[in-house]
Amino acid sequence: MELDELKGQLNQQLLSGFSNKPENKLAELLKGKACSLLCKIKKSILFEIACCIIGIIAFASISIIYHETAIRVYFGVFGVIFIPFIWVLWYLFKKIVAFENLVLPVKNNLKELIDLLSLFAKRYFQFNMALLPVCFFLAMALGYQQKEPIEGLEQMFLKLKGLTHFYSGIIIAYIAVTLIALVYFTKWYIKKLYGNYINQLQQLLAELKE
Amino acid sequence: MSESEKEFLHQLNEHQKIIHKVCNLYMQFPEDKEDLFQEVTLQAWKAYHKFRGDSKFSTWLYRVALNTAITFFRKEKQQSFIDSVSEIPDKQVYSDKEHIEEQTRAMYLAIGELSKIDKAIVMLYLEDYSYAEISDIIGITANNIAVKMNRIKGKLREATLKKIETA
């Protein structure tokens, strides 16, 4: 039996369980919540923007209130870093909203969606990675400039006197292990959030490229 | 309620069968079908202000519904597509009507096993859209659609036969 011979019956089968929703029921649906990945990303972006704004206010307050230079510089720098991050997040948010308003052919829609999600994942990774050296170098530079000795650390240095190379080695190893772990963790996390979905979309797109 | 919302709801009411069909084809569980129905409705409403009437509302709605269904992923559940339609009856002496019903069920199950893209093409084909119109919605050439449709028909023929033989 061929597909063409069963067109009518298959159309009936596709309509099984159909009950006409009245207009007021349809109107209620317009007020409901969307559950697509893009809507979740939009919510997540808005949440991150709100966090950044709170962060800027909190960090700016700390850097104004405290007298210690190290604390003022550390929180001041992070307060400033959040400003371009808000701009990037807002740009991505606007791109998603613009995409949602478009009704493209299936192939173009898949391509645009993959590009959008890949861009979001890329920027997310880049921002996280850019923060790492800032965190480490700022902490090291400010720690070096700290004039007041920190009780516990001072005693540890005294014990390690004469073992400068060993001490430096431990510091370098600590930084290297932490950096590598953070890079892999961030990659894994982004892949878990978006990577698998992007792969599934890419498979669908590949089917249309044959 | 704004004029635009009224107009949209009226159009949607007239064409809601399209969304229902897409939900039935892409989702197996009633709650998933409801979620997809809601998602398609919302997507259509978000994009409605850009609908200029260059194409028929039904064609435009098909595009929205298929785009939403294709990119709508749910975690795999245990139930398969086969559970959402009634069982194929055992081979026995049956009338012509029963014979067609059996063939339809088997073919429907075979369609359920197609990829998301192939399902979209079959759905539009069943709606009697021309290859040029399908190509417009899917975004590949009409020739490519014709080639794909031939392959799909072959796949469905084989899968249907297998299902009837193993029933």
Outline of the structure:
The complex is a heterodimer of chains A (210) and B (167). Chain A is built from 7 helices and no strands.
Name the descriptors.
heterodimer, A: 210 residues, mainly alpha, 82% helix, B: 167 residues, Rna Polymerase Sigma Factor, Chain: A, Arc Repressor Mutant, subunit A, 2 domains, 7 helices, 0% strand
Q: For the terminal residues of chain B, how far apart are their CA atoms?
A: 53 Å
Report the count of strand segments of chain A: 0
Oligomer: heterodimer
Q: Structural class of chain B, please? A: mainly alpha
Structural classification of chain A: mainly alpha
In N-to-C order, the SSE pattern of chain A is HHHHHHH
Q: List the uncertain runs of chain A.
A: none
Kindly describe this structure:
The complex is a heterodimer of chains A (210) and B (167). Chain A is mainly alpha-helical. Chain A is 82% helix and 0% strand. In chain A, helix 4 packs antiparallel against helix 5 (106-145) and helix 5 runs antiparallel to helix 7 (164-209). The radius of gyration of chain A is 27 Å and the shape is elongated. The two termini of chain A are 28 Å apart. The relative contact order of chain A is 0.07. Chain B folds into 2 domains: 1-80, Rna Polymerase Sigma Factor, Chain: A (Orthogonal Bundle), CATH 1.10.1740.10; 82-167, Arc Repressor Mutant, subunit A. Chain B has helices spanning 3-26, 30-48, 57-70, 96-112, 116-126, 131-138, 142-166. The termini of chain B are far apart. The chains are: A mainly alpha (210), B mainly alpha (167). Chains A and B meet through helix 1, helix 2, helix 5 and helix 7 of A and helix 1, helix 2, helix 3, helix 4 and helix 5 of B.
